[in-house]
Amino acid sequence: MQIIKNKIKIYLRNIVAIIYSYYLILIGKINKVKKSSASGEIILSVYFHNPSKKLFEKCIKWFLNNNYHFISDKELVDIIKNNNQFPRSAVIITVDDGWRENKYNIISVVDKFKIPLTIFATIEPIFENKSFWWSIVNKTKKIKENKMSINSLKTIPNELRMNYVEKLKKEISYSREALTSEELIEINENENIHIGSHTITHPILPMCDNLTSMYEIKESKMLLENKLKKEIAAFAYPNGDFTERECNYLEETGYHIAFTTQPNYIKKSNKINIFQIPRFGVVDNLPFVENLCRMTGVWYERKKYKK
Ligand SMILES: [Zn+2]
What we know:
Layout: H1 2-26, H2 29-38, E1 42-48, H3 53-65, E2 69-70, H4 73-81, E3 90-97, H5 102-105, H6 107-113, E4 117-121, H7 123-127, H8 133-139, H9 150-153, H10 158-169, H11 181-188, E5 193-197, H12 210-228, E6 234-236, H13 244-252, E7 257-259, E8 266-267, E9 280-281, H14 288-295
Parallel strand pairs: 1-3, 1-9, 2-3, 3-4, 4-5, 6-7
Antiparallel strand pairs: 1-8
Helix pairs in contact: 1-14, 8-10, 12-13
């Protein structure tokens, strides 16, 4: 019964979201963003997690059909560091975590359209076949040992969260969710793809002590560089969470750029902090028209719809 109720709730929520999205398009919100992009006032910055090929391709095609061109994280670093003119109608695409399905759903589209893209890899799930920690929590939701939600686990000290998830792990069996090391090496050879770091264990960095936060940032860069034989210059904060401390550690350890999940445009008029690049998120299982409003930022203009 509860499952049916939840399904109805999601269905109704999506209907309202679709109507609201068409309303935003009809009143010209997306056209306005296209104009700002075309005049070089803003660069769009978009991130994905584990989209279907259909959704990912639809998003990329929308950008292509609307005269956007894709820039890499390296190009963005050059633009910001040299205070260059913003390119017209530019968008940067990034993908977080390193999900196994990315290999087909994302890479095939990258190859088809020859667009640059950065994948932020999480070391443990990829190198050691460990599950993403929130998946373990999700899968053990119904067992009595699991009394905490994913959101509440994000607010407790890192060590406590890790111990808690470690205990839950014993309750279930799980299969690989992330790319394999071999797949990551193969993807790294693709000239359109850059690999960035998304830490080792995907912790909430502000919930870590100094040593752990530094370890997650520095060691993940080193491990990736050893494995891929390439400089790792870009970083994405797990869950988008960071403090000044993380920005300083990233600079100290030689990263060139870091991405947040703050939903905003990269604006020419602002003093841009290269370790706090904003991004609009496309949500895997939402209708395309809503994701169109999300990736162009118009969704976030009304706070009550903010996610
Ligand atoms: Zn992530």
